[in-house]
Amino acid sequence: MKKPGKWSALWREEDWWAIWLGFVILIVGMLIFFPRAPQGMKEKIAKANTIMQSEAERAPFKTLKWYKANDDKKKVKANSQNFAKSIKSFLNKPHRWKSNPIDSFYMSADEAKAETEKNVEKYNTLAIKEHEAGGLAMLAEVSAAKADYQNEELNEETKRVIADWRKALSKKNSARKKTQAKPYNQIPPLIGLCIILALFLSIGMKFMGRPSTKFIIGFFFVFSIAILAYMAEQQSTMKELGIGYAAWAILFGLIISNTVGTPKWAISAVQVEYFIKIGLVLLGAEILFSKIVSIGIPGIFVAWVVTPIVLITTYVVGQKIIKMPSKTLNITISADMSVCGVSAAIATAAACRAKKEELTLAVGMSLVFTSIMMIVMPIVIKALGISQVLGGAWMGGTIDSTGAVAAAGAFLGEKALYVAATIKMIQNVLIGVIAFFVALYWCVKVEAVPGQRVSLWEIWYRFPKFVIGFIGASIVFSIIYALMGSDVGYVLVDHGVIRGLTKTLRGWFFCLAFVSIGLATDFRQLKHMFKGGKPLILYVFGQSFNLCLTLFIAYIMFYVIFPGITAKI
Questions:
Q1: CA–CA gap between residue 232 and residue 238 (Å, rounded)
Q2: Which are the contacts of 548, defined by CB distance < 8 A and separation ≥ 6?
Q3: What is the DSSP string of 437-454?
Q4: For 247-303, what is each residue's pLDDT tens digit?
Q5: Concatenated DSSP letters for 267-290?
């Protein structure tokens, strides 16, 4: 394969265009949100911090007043402003529905009013329960204060009752959203978004020497299936079961490609790696160093030590014991299962040049197991009486999808959600590291020619360049976040650029990639890979080993070596 020129690669290769387009989106996000801070932001933050500091000095636990001040501070968000709501409305995916698919795209004023009235009674019931829980928490706190916080039993009881109040408050707030239904018509925004994305992405296609006009025509077809995938995810039963858009996108694509076949006029828009790489560059902006260090050495150890051990072990077992015929399939499955699912699989497959059908197989198994683990693990953790911190660490280190990790963590509680999401974020950093070492290993060991020296250029050529954008976005936004400070960063970065723009677009790019995977896959090409069930055996072994090792190491780190850090979470 002819290598591109030293500089021409910057505007001819897909990886570089993923970086350029990804950073254009990030820059646009900064230009939109950074100059438009919410009114009174600094004053509200300062007031809340003063109260929280005072309460922290007064009591050995987080008091009701501390939580209320913290909640007031968290309400200050850049994406809660009117202009941000307009952006959200334009970028939004289809809405939730129960029995009528049309509800996913359209709701009249009368229907919105009926939906609001239907949920008012439930909200009022939960509001009463929250009020009662708050009263009990207040009484418990007063009792602890009367003992000058010297009675450890009273302190622990107060923390427990306050935790119950927090759960009741969370349920009430969730119910409140359903009493605020507003009419919507999502069809025009979806058409507009499709046109803008088609034109935006066609720029890269043009410079890469690919047919941009054909891409635009085919893009409407791919985007339509992505809409259907999001719509299927939003169905109430599917939502409860945790079957997300990724599984639906691949499924719909597979049905088309393996029945009537993917239309020839749409093939130019079936761009798996182009879409996912842009999405991964945007994902990099969500991985902030301040959040990584916030959980301390235990979380970093669980994510950065366990993960490579599991990956290497799974690969070796696949080669030596299971006898996987394809090394590229072996390492792709190993990375997919041990690091963070689809994102790691894409990067690893690019580094070792795995076949497209091998990537599809790895991603498919990952999505199935992720759906199962997301539902089963919280149930098992509760049944075994495992603490939220340990349970969150266990799920964060083993469930492949970031979204599934957050959903499973939220099921257990706030602490579990925080720990699980943070560890998964730390683990995501390894995408670039793993890609580099896989590229290096493949050049030096797997595909090395005896007596021929491996050049650094060959390693660089094989290395997936979009990872540079992923790491670069993480560094840039981490620096910006640090300069702003965690409170302002929360408002303008977390709930501004990221949640107000890039995270939603990342979801669309990922969905388009999953649709493309399905449309580009022929089951007849996958059939021979399942011979003897070796890929499935490898995945089950690797995930079982991952579950056991992660739980053991998480317990040792959080409860044996660093119990002090755990107590502060």
A1: 7
A2: none
A3: HHHHHIIIIISPPTT-PP
A4: 898 889 989 988 988 999 999 999 988 998 898 899 889 888 777 777 778 888 888
A5: GGG--HHHHHHHHHHHHHTT--HH
